[in-house]
Amino acid sequence: MQTIYSFSELRSVRASMHGSFGLIPTMGALHVGHASLVERARQECNYIGASIFVNPAQFGVGEDFGKYPRTLEHDLALLESLGTDIVFIPSVETIYPPGYQTWVDVANVTAPLEGKCRPEHFRGVTTVVAKLLNAFTPSKAYFGQKDAQQVVVLKRMVRDLNFSVELMVCPTVREVDGLAVSSRNAYLLPAERQAATILHRALCAAKEKYDGGERNAEMLRAAMQSMLKKEPLALAQYVSAADPETLGELDRIEKGVLLSLAVRIGKTRLIDNFLVGDQ
Ligand code: PAF
Q: Which of 34, 74, 121, 200 is catalytic?
């Protein structure tokens, strides 16, 4: 596995690789969810590369940029064991050199949900992913369904800016009790870790209603809210039953629905989602 720190080195290494290339962009602190992306890429592409970059532009003021877990040695060992060909580990100055002033901004689908709670977040995500797609020129890029809105936003960007890459979306990996695997789970104290299962339980409560024939989206949002109220350590930021493409809140569900929620458990903010019905 080759470790690369600069765009110039990345371009020359990539130029020597012929055949399909799979990119797994990450912020490090790799877990089994990331491993599932790497494994899928390994099966589907001749060459695979990962990036590790904790992107300051996607963290708001007062968010966890400073304390975001950094586990580089472990990450490199994992990527190597999974057969990764190259790993790009740029510094902040490499991605955003002095004088940097160019941003990629997707409009409508960034407005609700995470965008409302974290106003600059998606501008940071789309900008860094656009830079990585330009530099790696991958055939496929792999993302987790766990960040459902990120996937919708990135698909929009790829279409709008004519990137010739296929975005591959891999299922959310869960702990045995249903908690979605996330680097931020490391922040949870033992009692909070127990409480955090409430996100999955709320989604299951709404899905149960859907499976029972309920098509009034407000009833699904209410099912999530009332489950969340049962957990004293949980503070809901939003619950949503939205159109999976536009992310607008639905009244009546005709086809599919994206059920999603953001919840504070103590100081930790967690998100999760289910994509339900025909897409
Ligand atoms: O999903 C993530 O880890 C990040 O948002 C990404 C796509 C690597 C961009 O920094």
A: 34
Verdict on whether the full-model pTM lies above 0.85: yes
Report the DSSP beta bridge partners of residue 50: 24, 87
Is the shortest distance between the CB of 37 and ligand 1 below 6 Å? no
Locate 65 and state its tokens: 């940029």
The encoded tokens of residue 222 equal: 């209410």
Distances (CA, A) of 206 to 66, 188, 211, 244, 261: 35, 25, 9, 16, 11
Q: Which residue has the tokens 């489950």?
A: 227
121 included as an active-site residue: no
Within 10 angstroms of residue 129's Cβ, the number of other Cβ atoms is 26
Q: State pLDDT tens for residues 149-203.
A: 999 999 999 999 999 999 999 999 999 999 999 999 999 999 999 999 999 999 9
**What are the pLDDT digits (tens) for 220-249?**
999 999 999 999 999 999 999 999 999 999
Contact between 70 and 60 (Cβ < 8 Å): no
Taking the C-alpha atoms of residue 199 and residue 194, their distance in angstroms, rounded to an integer, is 11
State the Cα–Cα distance between residues 240 and 220, nearest whole angstrom: 8
